[in-house]
Amino acid sequence: MLVDIVPIGDISAAVKREASAGLRSVYDCDVTVHSNQAIPEGAFDRSRNQYRAEQFIELASRIGRGEKNIGITEKDLYYRRRNYVFGLAYLNGNGSVISTYRLQTSTDGGITNKPADEVLSDRVRKEVVHEIGHTLGLEHCDNNKCVMSFSPTVREVDVKEENLCGTCSRLVH
Questions:
Q1: Is 130 annotated as a binding residue?
Q2: Which residue in 32, 42, 60, 75 has the most C-beta neighbors within 10 A?
Q3: Domains in the chain: boundaries
Q4: Which one of the listed residues 18, 54, 127, 131 is annotated catalytic?
Q5: What pLDDT, in 10s, does the model give residues 6-65?
Q6: So which residues are the signal peptide here (predicted)?
């Protein structure tokens, strides 16, 4: 399987590297990194001061060259009535997106003592693996250590591991 990472806006080399490493280690897939893309026109919602996640997925799906494509952005994303999302993917689709905006460290409820760059790296790896998992047909998992568990806050992101639990792993392998 080939996964194409589609940077949308200004994404650091470190974030692209961590996303690639996470995907390769969990899915044993090939990963390419697309050229940087502009923020999709019309994606910004002035009333919310946030960006519509589905427009980033549409862009990644349209221009990505992989069987699965994942957009990565620093913009604050939302979907429907949710206040924000770390990422979004359609079950069994070919496109997905994650945002690093709320994965940064601050007074965000995270439960780790690692340096800020390591915390962001861990969270990026977990979120790309999680969203690609949805594109492979995986739903949210009840095991809070599984990377496919639902994470409404960074606290849950920090608790879960970077890997699929045995049940989820069997569903995709």
A1: yes
A2: 60
A3: 1-168
A4: 131
A5: 999 999 999 999 999 999 999 999 999 999 999 999 999 999 999 999 999 999 999 999
A6: none
